[in-house]
Write a structure and sequence with these properties.
The protein is built from 9 helices and no strands. The protein has 158 residues and is an all-alpha fold. The chain has 2 domains: 59 residues, no CATH class; 88 residues, Orthogonal Bundle (434 Repressor (Amino-terminal Domain)), CATH 1.10.260.
């Protein structure tokens, strides 16, 4: 049985032809690329696309690669928001690290959402410093399982 070609998130194949009825995938892709907090349906659409693309492009990948896909998609909006907020304030990581008195690599861990290396207290201080508290609360609510595994769940959130 021949392998089918994956479609792009906007519903088109590699030639640009758009498959009828793929508006949900297109919306999911636009949300993903814009850095919005993705609703569950969009997360699942993007995860499926990512997995299909990887499986066809790299047939021998270990299953662990596919398990991380959803976390990567969920964390992308957080990564983009933190980086844009810092850059929008005209600050470098070095400058923020000096102001917060924390190592630069810890801010990079938070900014790049290296979930296994995030120090929750530093993450909280960094996002608070950038004025992202309310937005991060929304992200945590939308991604509670990942936030819990990262250790960034706030007690006052449901």
């Amino acid at each position: 049985m021949p392998k089918r070609k994956p479609r792009q998130p906007d519903g088109s194949d590699r030639s640009g032809a758009v498959k009828k009825g793929t508006t949900k995938a297109g919306i999911a892709a636009r949300r993903y690329l814009s850095g919005e907090i993705l609703p569950e349906e969009s997360v699942h659409l993007m995860t499926q696309y990512f997995k299909e693309t990887l499986a066809l492009s790299f047939p021998g990948l270990p299953p662990r690669c596919f398990e991380m896909a959803e976390d990567m998609i969920r964390s992308s909006s957080l990564t983009q928001k933190i980086q844009k907020a810092r850059e929008g304030a005209g600050l470098t990581i070095k400058e923020v690290a000096a102001r917060l008195k924390v190592p630069q690599y810890r801010l990079r861990d938070a900014e790049e959402v290296r979930s296994h290396r995030i120090i929750p207290e530093i993450f909280e201080r960094y996002t608070e410093f950038l004025g992202l508290r309310d937005w991060v609360d929304e992200w945590i609510n939308a991604n509670s399982d990942l936030a819990r595994r990262m250790g960034i769940v706030r007690e006052h959130l449901p």
